[in-house]
Amino acid sequence: MTQQFNSQFFAYTKQLTDGAFKAQSVALKSLETVAGLQLKALEQQAHDSAAFVAEALETRDADSLRTLWEKGANLSREQAERTVAISQEIIAVTQKAAESLQALVQEQRQAANDVAAAAAPAVKKAAK
């Protein structure tokens, strides 16, 4: 009886650790994707801002300042649009990761139910 309990316990423990490993893999992959998206956006914003500052330092008259003002407004709008687009991509990645984790949980639940259903007749027989 103890041997049967031990084998079931170890099988269930192995199942849980496999599930945890898969969940960690999904989480790390999505985290890597999100970090890559954010880094790419940061690099682009830094490049655009540096170009704007370099142009601002070369401004010498009122007409150049007016042109610079328009460029600054356009740069702000473009960066806001880019931020919204990146946020939408991050939400999509997060949603996909959540769906993968939910599928993993359902798989684990079904496997646990199958193990319990398979062990029930043997336990009943041993109890008699």
Largest sheet: none
Helix content: over 70%
Globally, the shape reads rod-shaped
N-to-C order of helices and strands: HH
Mean pLDDT: 88
Kindly provide the radius of gyration, computed on alpha-carbon positions and rounded to a whole number of angstroms: 28 Å
Q: How many strands appear in the DSSP assignment?
A: 0
End-to-end Cα distance? 12 Å
Multimerization state: single chain
What class, by secondary structure content? mainly alpha
Put simply, the count of helices is: 2
The poorly predicted ranges are none
Strand content: under 5%
Written description of the protein model:
95% of the residues lie in helices and 0% in strands. The protein is mainly alpha-helical and 128 residues long. The protein has a domain at 24-100. It is rod-shaped and about 100 Å long. It starts with a helix and ends with a helix. 0% of the residues are buried.
